[in-house]
Amino acid sequence: MADIDQPSPWWSPARHADRKPFLTARGAITRAVRAWFDEQGFSEVETAILQVSPGNETHLHAPRTELTSNDGTRATRYLRTSPEFAAKKLLAAGEAKIFEFARVFRDRERGDLHLPEFTMLEWYRAEASYDAVMADTIVVIAHAAQATGIGRFSFRGRTADPFVDPELLTVAQAVERFAGIDLLATISHGEGDRAALAAAANPLIRVTDDDTWSDIFSKVLVEHVEPNLGQGRLTVLFEYPAPEAALARAKAADPRVAERFEVYACGVELANGFGELTEAAEQRRRFVADMDEKERRYGERYPLDEDFLAAVAAMPPSSGVALGFDRLVMLASGALRVDQVVWTPPAGET
């Protein structure tokens, strides 16, 4: 006899019926967002999932596979964590405005807001400031809410109105407000002063001997800042500290910060955008440093995509943003978890 406590599979008629309203909302949002991009003159692209490198950030992990050619030689490939590398090659090729509903993969990430396979909505504008894609992001989120008729996002007791003007906060302002730390005082020449930040943060978080400046910053952000963002309305958190620039260019007026922003609703991070770095040597330096740190922590490193680095040098000044589409659908449909808003959850994840 079957165990009566065993939950039915997600594809059982009863469970699928429970999820169907969220999936219907997903379709409405997808159509609305595609229509908006079409009106703005964007081209929808489909880029390759298998990549030489999945991305070169310290804490991102990707599934890997091997391909075998006709002569029996084997080559390692990775499932991408983002379509960013391929999209920037298209910018270098001459595309000016592109977007993609991209299937992406991230290992070691599970939870109500995380799946190992998910959809990322990513778009780029050539010859545009990051303020432009920041404004795009607010409009796309509003279109999603309009498509479902929801008036207010809700998640874990927090609410946010997607139709009112967002709160604009620099990272330094947010850290000062919610943690009482002068973050910029701990940054010099684009590098973080680990001792200075540890001293300032020690009363608020647990700082270990192994923590880097970035680790301490991340703990402060997650524990003291992010829960306060996107309350009542969206929050745009911008001017990220230079040590957290990733693929963003430094701000010309203040090299302690980078042209990077994130958008939050109900404490949930929805989008991460950049004024894109176009200096290949600097991008290489950052990648190597991140891979050195990845190897130190996790005992592995990903190769550099030399074709991508060549494209960075060739691409025009551009800005882009990656938005977690499943999270947006979750908030705009009233779902409680991202696995409720995907048609077929990854095997073993629900």
Question: What topology emerges from the helices and strands here?
Answer:
Layout: H1 13-39, E1 43-44, E2 50-51, E3 64-68, E4 74-79, H2 84-93, E5 97-105, E6 117-126, H3 130-148, E7 153-155, E8 158-161, E9 167-170, H4 171-179, E10 187-188, E11 191-192, H5 194-201, H6 213-225, E12 232-233, E13 235-241, E14 250-251, E15 254-265, E16 268-275, H7 280-298, H8 306-314, E17 318-324, H9 325-333
Parallel strand pairs: 1-5, 8-12, 9-13
Antiparallel strand pairs: 2-4, 3-4, 5-6, 6-17, 7-8, 10-11, 13-15, 14-15, 15-16, 16-17
Structure description:
The protein has a single domain, classed as Bira Bifunctional Protein, Domain 2 (BirA Bifunctional Protein, domain 2), CATH 3.30.930. 35% of the residues lie in helices and 25% in strands. It has helices at 13-39, 84-93, 130-148, 171-179, 194-201, 213-225, 280-298, 306-314, 325-333, and strands at residues 43-44, 50-51, 64-68, 74-79, 97-105, 117-126, 153-155, 158-161, 167-170, 187-188, 191-192, 232-233, 235-241, 250-251, 254-265, 268-275, 318-324. The strands form four sheets. Strands 1, 5, 6, 9, 13, 14, 15, 16 and 17 form a nine-stranded mixed β-sheet that branches. A three-stranded antiparallel β-sheet has the order 2-4-3, with no helix packed on it. Strands 7-8-12 form a three-stranded mixed β-sheet, with no helix packed on it. The longest helix has 27 residues, at 13-39. The protein is globular. The relative contact order is 0.17. The mean pLDDT is 94. Keywords: ATP-binding, Elongation factor, Ligase, Nucleotide-binding, Protein biosynthesis.
